[in-house]
Amino acid sequence: MKSLLLNAVITAGFIIVLASSSLSAEPQFNSIPIVGLRINSSFVPHFGGIRTDQICDLMWRHIQGTHGWDWANDYDFRQFLTKCDETGMMLVYAPSDLEQYMVAAAGNRKNWFRNPEELFTSDDAYAQASINYDSLQQTSSASDMYSDWTYGIYPINEFVAGKMDDFKCLWFYYIFDEAPSRQRTRMIEDEEEYSIYFPNLYTQEWANTVPPVPALSEVESTGLFSWIKYIAEHDDDFPVTTTLNFSLLHTILPGEYTDFGGIDNGTFARQAISVEAVCNAIYQGPPIGGVPQPPEDNPPAFICFDYYPFRYVNQNNSSSTTMCDDDWLFLIDHFEEGIDSTIVPALENDVPTFYFPQAFGAAGGPLVLTDSTLHYKSYTYRKPAPQEFLMLCNIALLHQAKGIFPYNLRSYIQSPNNLADVNNFISSSLLDYNLIPFDAPYEEYVYTNRWPKDNEEYIYQSVTHLPPWNAGFDPLYNLPTPPVKSPDPKYNEYYNEWLFKPHGDLFNKLERIFTQILRIGPEMYDLFWCDGYSDQASIATTLSSIPIHFVLPRIKVFENPAQNKYYLFYVNRFCRAESTPYEISFNSSDLPYWAACSNRLLDHSRRFVMDGTEGPTGTFTFLDTLGPGEARLVELVDFSTPIPADVRITDNNVWTILPARGDTATVDMTAVPGESVHIIARYYNMGTGGKMRIQVNLYDATTEETIGSSEINFTGLTHGSGNCRESEYRDVVFEWEPDTDDIGPHMLEARATPWIGEPDRADNTARMTFLIEPNDWATKVREDPWDMTEAASSPPPAWYTDDISSMVGWTTAYTDSISGMFEGSVSSSHLADNKMYLDMDGEVIDGDSYHFLSLIGKTEDDCDVYLGWKDINNITGEEEIGTLDSDWGRMEVFDLSTEWQGRRITEIWLSFRPDGNEQMPVRIGWVKLENGEL
């Protein structure tokens, strides 16, 4: 690897688009983690086919971790773990080996529970229910439930821990999903005799109410949750934090939500009770010599919480549904009450909470559209608009959430094992079923499954029917006019690209959304509502005319108890306008007397000083403008004495410029060997004081090498009358020229060396993953990739693309129904000797450098694919390189190094050889010949 420092420090006047990346095997110290949930599929719950570049793409959008479940010994899962390790992606894991204890299915480890009908010292202290919960399969003593090799929890955990020990990317086990509400529901419904014990979390105590309800006030110290959690966290070799997820126990009365009959799923008070019970959980191990062991504390390190407030309304009112209307506001207000019923009691017990914001929506299925009539089930999910999602994240931070886990990454079928249910639906999430962005080129997904194969009922409905894209719902989004139906062979392509582009809107805006969270993450994790003073600030719009459906903002006073610092955090909940002006005010007499009140605020969101006014009675007023869903974190600071210089760099303050591709900053941190890379790190000063000769560097943690280093100087934030609102930052450019030895992911760190007296040293490092991809021969040498794009020549060749020079043994009926794709048919008389010559533009391939070949395509039937070549000495060769079938997809990379060693290749062709004896259609999306393999 060549590494050079570009001797330039760019001033604050250099304007570019910010980009970033974040990585770590666990969250950065005092930061807000962002973890995307469910990267594997509910329809096929495994990790097969997830590529390194897909993981990096998530990280470049500031998703620092991901979540999924599988068996610890599964090959695809372990391959995924390796990729997480290499890229620095965190993993939240739900081991199927441990989850199986709660699954209603046959097997030695299924459906076990603590049997309260028997003493803990009894041989029948634990029982296993049948699949239908209507009978007992077997019973067990506590000792055997702990250690029996066929079903005991301890040996299974030891097996999982042993399999995980080689990996650093695992963060915590997430097993009991929505367990409190699930147990409550089963206790009330009591459909079968033993169903009331699942999940085996709380005791079976009922509250003394009228009518009585499940108490949920005590975690069963000998239940499955308590045991699995304690055993996993106390493993000698590989202890793993283990926790659960809460949904919301709540009630909506008839009439509170349009045309909705209401639900009775408990109360916010019961939610708080259930949370407090988990926060005070204890564990009691198996008896020793027949004597019970004393209980031990078993509280969670943190808990998780989900509640999804974005819904449809009943079809009778679908045309009048708009963003921020009464139904919308009711659910948002309801959500805020609910999140307090979870987070407040958790924090009272020193347990932080991570929130799962809604990032999915029902977008198709048997009932959604029938006979051209839209059928909404009232109170069903919908996908949020980007401004709604941003607001949801910021509202969670306002209510003291300490992590953001967007649900969901991969689209899925709600009930994959019950497709016949007319109420089933497609969950459209951030990415499609194949982890492909919804607005990807049509050729990338046309032959993949955006709904289950062979089931036409599960299709995505027209976005003209679905909020947030239907007419009038979101005033900031105008849905383009769909293409006019025509006989054009590409009509289906045009229509589908129109149909799916809106579904990708949220994913495309994630980087911008999560940037706002990352910028304030180092502070927010350590901030909490100021006890007794949290509501002693106000915010109101300065608009003279209040717009339709205006929604009031929220503001809270926060404190950092360890540092006696005070902050304001405020959120714009009005999502129908690009910007809204607000007035923020507070009175010094309403806050603790030691709070630093002045007519200046230190803005942590924008990293400058805000100016305001002081009234005669100690009232301080500030003006601000917020975008839809936007929030601001500002600190109350005494500016009468200098605030010491303080470096801050967060993951969104690092980006890349590739000079050979233009001087545009990019969020995609990827390059190829031999390409000059400019990695730019922006270091901010958060103090009014100056500091000279601060040492900064860019470090490659993968190779353990320093790419470059430099010095920066700070003079101090401007904060005098009339010169506030100017950030002080220095941009340092590090030049890197990777070579072929660097192919693969690199975990980079932009560092600033702390000094004695620096107020906060925890935010001096930003982390990002950079991906060095192999060179593609056709792209680099031919300067035109073999991507089957339409021919530029006129007239075009019969096969419509200049990436193919000639064809042998093919029919003349070539088509061009899909852009960027070759389409043709192998002649039935040339099934064994057909050839597709790839155009080489007179160039020669160095077989020692370029020998990794892959392609993506589809054939009508199973088909063996051969690669043929001729070298500069007119020696020819041929090798079977893989298979294609009716499923569109990538063919595995084939290494030609043995066959091509020392050769210089002058011709290259592909041959497609089916098992049958009839003419066979073939489609090819691209062919790559690379000098390395990811």
Commentary on this structure:
The structure is a single chain. The protein is of the alpha+beta class. 17% of the residues lie in helices and 28% in strands. It is built from 16 helices and 50 strands. The strands form 12 sheets. The chain has a 7-stranded parallel β-sheet with strand order 2-3-4-8-9-14-15. Strands 21-23-24-30-26-27 form a 6-stranded antiparallel β-sheet, with helices on one face. Helix 5 packs across helix 7, helix 8 (268-279) runs parallel beside helix 9 (326-348) and helix 10 runs parallel beside helix 14. The model is unreliable at 1-24 (pLDDT under 50).
Q: If you compute it from the alpha carbons, what radius of gyration comes out, rounded to the nearest whole angstrom?
A: 30 Å
- Measured by DSSP, the beta-strand proportion falls in 25-35%
Envelope shape? globular
Helix percent band: 10-25%
Number of strands: 50
* Poorly predicted ranges: 1-24
Give the N-terminus to C-terminus distance in angstroms.
Answer: 17 Å
Question: What spatial order of strands do you see in the largest sheet?
Answer: 2-3-4-8-9-14-15
> Major sheet: size, sense and barrel closure?
7 strands, parallel
Q: What class, by secondary structure content?
A: alpha+beta
How many distinct helices? 16
* Mean pLDDT metric: 92
Key features of this structure:
934 residues; alpha+beta; seven-stranded parallel sheet; globular; disordered N terminus
Helix-strand blueprint:
Elements: E1 2-10, E2 35-36, H1 52-60, E3 65-70, H2 75-87, E4 90-95, H3 96-99, E5 112-114, E6 126-129, E7 136-140, H4 142-147, H5 153-164, E8 170-177, H6 179-189, H7 224-233, E9 241-246, E10 251-252, E11 263-264, H8 268-279, E12 282-283, E13 296-297, E14 303-306, H9 326-348, E15 353-356, E16 361-364, E17 369-370, E18 373-374, H10 386-398, E19 412-413, E20 426-428, H11 442-445, H12 491-500, H13 505-508, H14 510-524, E21 528-529, E22 538-541, E23 554-560, E24 565-571, E25 580-587, E26 600-603, E27 608-611, E28 613-614, E29 619-626, E30 631-636, E31 647-648, E32 654-657, E33 670-671, E34 677-685, E35 691-700, E36 705-714, E37 729-737, E38 744-752, E39 765-772, H15 777-782, E40 804-808, E41 822-826, E42 835-838, E43 845-846, E44 852-859, E45 863-871, E46 876-884, E47 889-890, E48 894-895, H16 897-900, E49 904-914, E50 920-930
Parallel strand pairs: 2-3, 3-4, 4-8, 8-9, 9-14, 14-15, 33-39
Antiparallel strand pairs: 1-37, 5-6, 6-7, 10-11, 12-13, 16-20, 17-18, 19-20, 21-23, 22-25, 23-24, 24-30, 25-29, 26-27, 26-30, 28-29, 31-34, 32-34, 34-37, 35-36, 35-38, 38-39, 40-42, 41-50, 42-49, 43-49, 44-47, 44-48, 44-50, 45-46, 45-49
Helix pairs in contact: 5-7, 8-9, 10-14
